């Protein structure tokens, strides 16, 4: 049963890139959102938020993953996140979708050009959330478009 969304975190992860997507996933309460890190030691985001993982990368269950979210961060550019890329690859190989807020992590996980992944620019948090909403089939398609217009352009749905 694919009921889990894994949010893969590490020291310096870019929390703002994925915050809106995580909010929309948690709002209907249909998904088991799990914060996953290399160890159970709290990590600190790039903006200084301390996050305590729910489980370790070794404990995640790829067969339960509907989606894995990989936030950006400078550690990707420094090549220090092979373990995160390997976890994303395991989830993808088990049939889950991988969502990344930048292409560097997809390339490191050897997912570029494969099915069941998507990414958005690190400057496109609304587009990223839109992709996550579609991947998890949250809301009906017309509501998704209304949501996008509201968050991207501040234009509410016309009744």
Automatic annotation (TrEMBL):
Domain named DJ-1/PfpI: residues: 5-112
InterPro entries: Class_I_gatase-like, DJ-1/PfpI
Domain of life: Bacteria
Signal peptide: none
Protein's recorded name: DJ-1/PfpI family protein
């Amino acid at each position: 049963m694919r009921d889990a969304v894994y949010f893969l975190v590490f020291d310096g992860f870019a929390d703002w890139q994925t915050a809106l997507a995580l909010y929309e996933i948690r709002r209907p309460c249909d998904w088991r959102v799990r914060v996953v890190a290399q160890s159970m030691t709290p990590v600190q985001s790039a903006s200084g938020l301390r996050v305590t993982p729910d489980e370790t990368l070794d404990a995640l269950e790829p067969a339960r993953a509907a989606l894995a979210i990989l936030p950006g961060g400078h550690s990707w550019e420094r090549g220090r996140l092979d373990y995160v890329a390997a976890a994303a690859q395991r989830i993808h190989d088990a049939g889950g979708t991988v969502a990344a807020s930048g292409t560097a992590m997809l390339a490191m996980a050897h997912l570029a050009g494969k099915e069941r992944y998507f990414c958005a620019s690190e400057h496109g948090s609304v587009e990223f959330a839109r992709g996550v909403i579609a991947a998890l089939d949250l809301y009906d398609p017309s509501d998704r478009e209304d949501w996008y217009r509201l968050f991207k352009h501040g234009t509410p749905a016309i009744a």
